Structures are given as structure tokens and as C-alpha cells.
């Protein structure tokens, strides 16, 4: 099997629209969650969201295509284009047929779907747009991206709720390992900030209702956490076979060394209290990487800020690593980004790569009141310099889906030129927790 490396990252997020801005926000504790403004929210139980700012889809798509694509598709195309630029990759016809595009989404084009339903209700069937169906299909993030960049290799969407983006990266890596592709653009995209979606998650008691404190409402592992903050955005990684990337002189940022995916087979929205499904996925990923638990230096947790998830993930980590003292440092970056649903696993995979590049653990911000059920080292409120060789990234989803990725430091990712290309901020604002 061939080794798989990461050569480019593209991000459209509530805390920044490129890796440099995202990393700076993670180091400074700049929150991307605020009052929900994309839709009328005064009557909603939760009025907080992580909204993408400063995004101009016309920078990435022709104006006509902007009118014919949902916001989640626009995010995906933008992140994919940025990732290709970062990878210094131009898809010539010969490369295009060996390039896969796998982009996951939990909900697809819900903004478009809701608008279509309203048009049908108020104006009748004759006024429904002929673009309604192709605009909201969840596979259109990958479909439109492939059309825009000319990639003619394998193309499909992974749908596993909040594990979708991580599953896309894992399956793409397997595809390259097996020789079915040389290159893959893989990740997730989501634009879920509609009244129906927010009301639905609120009805599940899944969302934070800390409406008077939107910037600090997401509090993973904190005793006062009361739910996640829903967010939008996308993250795409360029994956390549190592030999192919080296031959073309690509900037190699990290290596994808392990992937595991399982099902809880337990409940449609509640994780197993003992975390057995998550444990099984972590075991698969570790076995795939041919590593031991002692090799993992940092875990980017799913860490949603819901009472059930954070306690269950903590229990799973203690079980898997063999007790509280054996668990390496853990953090949840959802404290700042909010929860991007189907794009969350991809964004956190990208952040895991950045952590390896900078040799810094991004902290869990807003963690001030310890929870007896969450008693690990969550790197609270300050970045930590650490020797990082292997980083684990967890993503779990409704339906009992579990996806775990392990990234390894690649020798060239330590070079000054690679670090300089991503951020000059990696050595500032770093403290010990």
C-alpha cells in the first residue's frame, strides 16, 4: 500500500477563511460564535451560531453559477480551490482522471430546500425553480467542485452526520493507498443556518441556549456546558500518494497514517455511555497506523459541548488508553468554531495537521469549571508547545457513526519554509496550561 500525505488545506470557517487566520484565532482565543443573523431568530430557543464572515462566492464561481448553487456548495468549491493553490497543484488532463473528489455533508442544501418549500406554499408549483433539486442534493458539493476544477476521477459524498467530513478523508486516503487514485480532494461542507434546522436541533435539547453569552456559549468539557453552537463552513484537504507528491515537489504537510470507522448500533442520537463504538473506531485507526496508544501525542476531540457527548468521549478515551493518567492531552476546537456538523470532522482534521506543523496544541477555550465526569487534560485556555509526532482526530455523528483519523508528522513539515508558508503566528501567545 502506498503512503498518503497532505499537501494542501482550504478552509472557510467562522474564525477565518484560510489556515493562517484560523490558526491565529485558535492561538488568540478569538471566538467565531455570535448572535444568529442569517435568519430571523428572535423566536428561536437558541439564537447563537458560528457564521462565516467576509465570504464572496463570486471570487470562486462565475456569477451565473453562484445563483445556481447552494451556500454549502459555494463553501466547498472555495475551500477546494484554496487547497489546490496551497498544494501548488494544477490539474492537467492527465492528472484529472486520477483525481478523486470526496466531500461529505450532513444536511446538504437546506437553505435552498426551505426556500423551495416556501415558494411552493406561497406561489404555487409553477414557481418552483428547476434548479431546486440539483441545488440541495448533498452530493453537489463534490459534483460542482469536480466540474469547476475538472477532476474526472471517483466522486461521491459521504453522509454520516457529523462524521461525514472525517469519513470522506479516510475513504479518500484508502482509495489512494489502494491505487485507485493518485490525488484526492476530501473533506466536508455545511450551511445549516436555517430556521427549521436550528429549531429542530433546539427541540432535541442539543443546542446551547446561552443567548446572552454567544461568544463563550460553546464550552466543551466544562461543567456548565448546555449544548453545542451550530455553525457553517467547509474544510478540504488535498491528499496525494507520497511518491507522486515527492516527484512533483509538493509541499508535504503531514501524513495520513490511520483511519477507523464503526457504528455504535445503540441509539439514533445518543452515544453509548461507555463509548464502546468510539473505542472500536480508535482501535481500528491505531491498528491501521501500526502504532500503540503511547505513540499518540494529542487528541483533537469531537468535544461538542453537550452533556452526553463530552462525558461519553471522556469515558471512551480513558477506556481506550488504559486509564485517566495514560490519556494524552485532549482539546476541542469547537469552543471557538462552533459545530460545523458534516464539515466538523474535516475542519478538525485540518487543525490537527496545523498542530503537527506548528508543534503546538490548540487549547480548549472557555473551560473554567471542571466537570467530575470530564477529568482529562483538556489543555484549558492557553496553547501549549508540545513535541507532536502523531495526532488523533475524532468525529462522531447521529446514527451512531464514528470516524477516527490519525495524522503523522512528515519530515518536511518541520522545515522553516513550510511553517513560514502557513503562519508567522505559531510562536506567539503560547503559554502553559
From TrEMBL:
Pathway: Lipid metabolism; fatty acid biosynthesis. InterPro entries: 3-oxoacyl-ACP_synth-2, Beta-ketoacyl_synthase, Ketoacyl_synth_AS, Ketoacyl_synth_C, Ketoacyl_synth_N, PKS_Beta-ketoAc_synthase_dom, Thiolase-like. It comes from the Bacteria. Its EC number is 2.3.1.179. Residues 413-427 have a biased composition (Low complexity). Pfam families: ketoacyl-synt, Ketoacyl-synt_C. Keywords: Acyltransferase, Fatty acid biosynthesis, Fatty acid metabolism, Lipid biosynthesis, Lipid metabolism, Transferase. SUPFAM superfamilies: Thiolase-like. Residues 413-433 are annotated as: Disordered. GO terms for biological process: fatty acid elongation. It catalyses: (9Z)-hexadecenoyl-[ACP] + malonyl-[ACP] + H(+) = 3-oxo-(11Z)-octadecenoyl-[ACP] + holo-[ACP] + CO2; a fatty acyl-[ACP] + malonyl-[ACP] + H(+) = a 3-oxoacyl-[ACP] + holo-[ACP] + CO2. One of its GO terms (cellular component) is cytosol. One of its GO terms (molecular function) is 3-oxoacyl-[acyl-carrier-protein] synthase activity. Residues 1-409 form the Ketosynthase family 3 (KS3) domain. The active site is at residue 162. The keyword Acyltransferase applies. Belongs to the thiolase-like superfamily. Beta-ketoacyl-ACP synthases family. Involved in the type II fatty acid elongation cycle. Catalyzes the elongation of a wide range of acyl-ACP by the addition of two carbons from malonyl-ACP to an acyl acceptor. Can efficiently catalyze the conversion of palmitoleoyl-ACP (cis-hexadec-9-enoyl-ACP) to cis-vaccenoyl-ACP (cis-octadec-11-enoyl-ACP), an essential step in the thermal regulation of fatty acid composition. PANTHER family: 3-OXOACYL-[ACYL-CARRIER-PROTEIN] SYNTHASE, MITOCHONDRIAL, POLYKETIDE SYNTHASE-RELATED. This is 3-oxoacyl-[acyl-carrier-protein] synthase 2.
